[in-house]
């Protein structure tokens, strides 16, 4: 895999910083405060930039008396209430300045990037561009967020100099969470301007910036809309239900768990209808039989357009028992019935595999004459693959760009060509020929060149259709996954659940690869051994990173191992396991080499405990961290309570604060961490994780998940360059004491009396209170860290012996949800 940039040599070029000074983006503006425009503004605010958000002056505003910027102002207010949250921290709303097109265009002179995001109407866009152009400064970048109109045509009447700085930047909704930005150049666009925005989107906005051709619907909407409309047609042909389609087009093939119809409800059926109509009107593809289903028209006529109107393909209805029941639409009658769980033997078998590639191969190997799921896949997937193959050169130059767009824009684990490789190109083409299905010309070209797959050499090379040969997959150095380091540098040590990978420059990475990255004894013992002072790893490497290439950092300790131990009453074994986990986190904290943890996605329970003990944390923006042990009837037993107490006491010692036991400042900070642990709070962003004290003020945040490993490695090198010295065990921790413990327990009592919590919740919370205040120690008694670890272990073991704890663990393992008992 060639480690260079997708856009010229922007990212890896040694002259990169100097070359991009021409387009230094420090302030932005968004024109149009609708759903998309306002959310783009919010995410730019998340990146730390001030943003000007402009919209029309409403016709009913009376001169200067009314609020002439009410549309933009109300949009910012709505952002604060939006779900999913648009801001990573609600205070970031202050970075957006509302305004209007009549009074505030002069303010655009201070903006380095202006994004047009008004209605999808060519004349409306052109009229606004003509009004805006005179107010932009000489190096301002001007882009459109159109979802399908020709970018060149929109900007055709702009001044010649501005046309060099005009191109498309198509965000996907919601912009905070969807990684894709399609960048659509025109024949006149300046390459440096394109590079500047691509780099900014990558580094500052955390986006996967993919170059797209200036054709209708660009890449992701073109292929995604075809897939959705074709799925409708197949559903009708094969007599499948909505729930069945959502099961078949979900995680089993590496697509989001929403499936097709739940996704439509989430996005909005009106938006789907608009995109589909634009697709059908603007494209002239080989599949003329793909049409807008009548049910879409009917749903829009009824205003049943999904979640925003509380019904679409699905709706929820409260039954006589007070419980909410999910109903599903029957398209033939336009009536709702109770939703049922589909049952497909092939799908159930495929779910046993953790590999999406293996699952795709399994469902495609099934006999379509005997299995309804196989029948669907044998029609839907080859048609998707053929359609995608015919788009190479039209929507994007390479198949790699198409795959990246579908992964980032629709959250597919694999793009269509990687999916085809998983099924086997030569095998499927042979079956397609036998069935009389048309074979795309580019596929024939691949096979004629001796190719058997779209990618080869572990995905580091792809078949370039234009040149008829394999070329290296171009990847920015900073985007290299751990897998690429494994190929280039090798693995220093490993077992079935964890590897120690050489990242180069004297830094190694502990990579989890257990199921859901759960933390079992194999991971615990491995990390503990490798971080011992005289280990080969410590002698060979100057620093360490803990990260992985998975969907989530870690879901926490292996609960199945724990449950089996509880059921067999192996208390000594459980005690040994807790001690081992504590020894691992202590090894991370006191290692002579700096250990940087890179948490992302779900970082729960033991995952958060590992993170808390690192020398530094380099977190991804989308971090869902939490000490969630209370949800399964336990307390954090790997040092989580200890570290949170230390953070609370340190916070109370800030200038002007009183850290002494029993002081108001001390009690308030301890109450804060007590509530975080006892309520099993989980952050909704890295910014909130900082507020919960899972991250400190000195920890760093990466906007782009693809850069996380590289950023964490840089942090380890920075610590080394600054002369890193490992901390020593603290022995001067002043016990908060019994009075603080009584205060915390009084709060628990009142919560129980108010029936906000159960008896077992109260028992768990009281254990947490005891640990955080030093057990039976009197206020001010000096404790060391080991004393607090012993308190944690005692409470953890005690709760393991509770029947309700065992019930909670079993329920969570079965359902993935907490039990309130």
UniProtKB/TrEMBL annotation:
Q: Which reaction does it catalyse?
A: a (3S)-3-hydroxyacyl-CoA + NAD(+) = a 3-oxoacyl-CoA + NADH + H(+)
- Domain (Enoyl-CoA hydratase/isomerase) spans 513-641
Keywords, A to Z? Answer: NAD, Oxidoreductase
Where in this chain does the record put each 3-hydroxyacyl-CoA dehydrogenase C-terminal domain? 218-315
Instruction: Give the residues annotated as coiled coil.
Output: none
Q: Where is the 3-hydroxyacyl-CoA dehydrogenase NAD binding domain?
A: 28-214
- InterPro entries in the record: 3-OHacyl-CoA_DH_NAD-bd (IPR006176), 3HC_DH_C (IPR006108), 6-PGluconate_DH-like_C_sf (IPR008927), ClpP/crotonase-like_dom_sf (IPR029045), ECH_dom (IPR045004), NAD(P)-bd_dom_sf (IPR036291)
Could you tell me what this protein is called? 3-hydroxyacyl-CoA dehydrogenase NAD-binding domain-containing protein
According to its UniProt entry, this protein's organism is: Acidicapsa dinghuensis
């Amino acid at each position: 895999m060639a480690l260079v940039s997708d856009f010229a040599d922007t990212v890896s070029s040694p002259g990169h910083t100097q070359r991009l000074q021409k387009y230094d983006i420090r302030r932005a503006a968004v024109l149009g405060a609708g759903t998309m425009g306002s959310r783009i503004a919010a995410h730019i605010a998340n990146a730390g930039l001030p943003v000007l958000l402009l919209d029309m002056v409403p016709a009913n505003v009376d001169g200067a008396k009314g609020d002439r910027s009410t549309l933009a102002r109300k949009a910012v207010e709505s952002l604060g209430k939006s779900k999913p949250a648009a801001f990573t921290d609600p205070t970031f709303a202050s970075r957006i300045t509302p305004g209007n097109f009549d009074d505030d265009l002069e303010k655009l002179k201070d903006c380095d990037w202006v994004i047009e995001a008004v209605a999808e109407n060519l004349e409306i866009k052109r009229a606004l561009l003509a009004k805006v152009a005179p107010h932009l400064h000489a190096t301002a970048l001007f882009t459109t967020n159109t979802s399908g109109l020709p970018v060149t045509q929109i900007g055709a009447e702009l001044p010649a100099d501005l046309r060099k700085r005009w191109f498309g930047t198509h965000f996907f909704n919601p912009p905070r969470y969807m990684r894709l930005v399609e960048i659509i150049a025109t024949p006149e666009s300046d390459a440096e301007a394109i590079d500047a925005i691509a780099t900014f989107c990558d580094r500052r906005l955390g986006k996967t910036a993919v170059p797209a051709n200036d054709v209708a619907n660009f890449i992701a909407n073109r292929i995604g809309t075809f897939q959705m409309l074709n799925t409708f047609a197949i559903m009708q042909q094969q007599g499948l239900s909505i729930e069945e389609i959502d099961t078949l087009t979900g995680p089993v093939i590496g697509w989001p768990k929403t499936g097709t119809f739940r996704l439509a409800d989430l996005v909005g059926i009106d938006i789907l209808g608009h995109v589909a109509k634009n697709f059908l009107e603007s494209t002239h593809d080989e599949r003329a039989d793909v049409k807008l289903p009548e049910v879409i028209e009917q749903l829009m006529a009824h205003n049943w357009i999904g979640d925003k109107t509380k019904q679409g393909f699905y709706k929820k209805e409260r039954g006589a028992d007070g419980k909410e029941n999910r109903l599903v639409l029957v398209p033939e009658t336009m009536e709702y019935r109770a939703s049922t769980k589909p049952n497909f033997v092939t799908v159930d078998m495929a779910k046993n595999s953790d590999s999406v590639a293996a699952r795709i191969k399994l469902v495609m190997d099934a006999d379509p004459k005997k299995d309804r799921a196989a029948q669907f896949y044998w029609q839907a997937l080859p048609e998707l693959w053929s359609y995608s193959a015919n788009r190479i050169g039209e929507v994007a130059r390479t198949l790699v760009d198409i795959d990246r767009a579908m992964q980032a824009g629709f959250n597919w684990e694999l793009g269509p060509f990687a999916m085809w490789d998983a099924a086997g190109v030569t095998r499927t083409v042979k079956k397609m020929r036998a069935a009389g299905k048309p074979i795309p010309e580019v596929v024939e070209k691949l096979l004629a060149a001796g190719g058997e797959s779209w990618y080869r050499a572990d995905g580091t090379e792809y078949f370039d259709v234009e040149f008829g040969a394999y070329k290296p997959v171009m990847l920015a150095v900073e985007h290299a996954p751990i897998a690429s380091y494994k190929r280039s540098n090798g693995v220093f040590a490993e077992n079935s659940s964890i590897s120690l990978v050489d990242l180069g420059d004297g830094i190694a990475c502990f990579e989890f690869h257990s199921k859901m990255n759960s933390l079992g004894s194999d991971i615990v013992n491995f990390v503990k051994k490798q971080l011992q002072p005289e280990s080969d790893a410590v002698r060979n490497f100057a620093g360490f990173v803990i990260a992985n290439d998975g969907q989530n950092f870690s879901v926490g300790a292996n609960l199945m191992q724990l449950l089996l131990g509880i059921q067999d009453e192996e208390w000594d074994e459980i005690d040994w396991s807790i001690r081992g986990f504590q020894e691992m986190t202590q090894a991370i904290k006191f290692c002579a080499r700096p250990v940087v943890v890179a948490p992302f996605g779900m970082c729960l329970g033991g995952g958060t405990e590992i993170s808390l003990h690192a020398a530094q944390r380099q977190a991804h923006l989308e971090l869902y961290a939490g000490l969630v042990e209370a949800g399964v009837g336990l307390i954090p037993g790997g040092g989580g309570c200890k570290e949170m107490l230390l953070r609370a006491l340190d916070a109370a010692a800030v200038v002007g604060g009183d850290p002494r036991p029993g002081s108001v400042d001390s009690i308030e900070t301890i109450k804060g961490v007590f509530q975080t642990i006892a309520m099993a709070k989980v952050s909704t962003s890295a910014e909130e994780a900082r507020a919960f004290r899972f991250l400190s003020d000195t920890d760093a945040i990466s906007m782009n998940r693809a850069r996380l490993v590289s950023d964490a490695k840089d942090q380890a090198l920075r610590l080394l360059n600054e002369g890193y010295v490992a901390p020593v065990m603290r022995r001067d921790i002043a016990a908060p004491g019994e009075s603080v413990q009584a205060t915390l327990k009084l709060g628990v009592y009142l919560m129980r009396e108010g029936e906000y919590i159960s008896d077992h919740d109260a028992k768990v919370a009281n254990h947490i209170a005891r640990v955080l205040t030093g057990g039976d120690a009197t206020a001010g008694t000096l404790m060391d860290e080991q004393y607090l670890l012993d308190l944690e272990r005692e409470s953890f073991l005690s709760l393991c012996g509770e029947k309700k704890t065992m019930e909670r663990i079993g329920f969570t393992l079965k359902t993935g949800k907490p039990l309130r008992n």
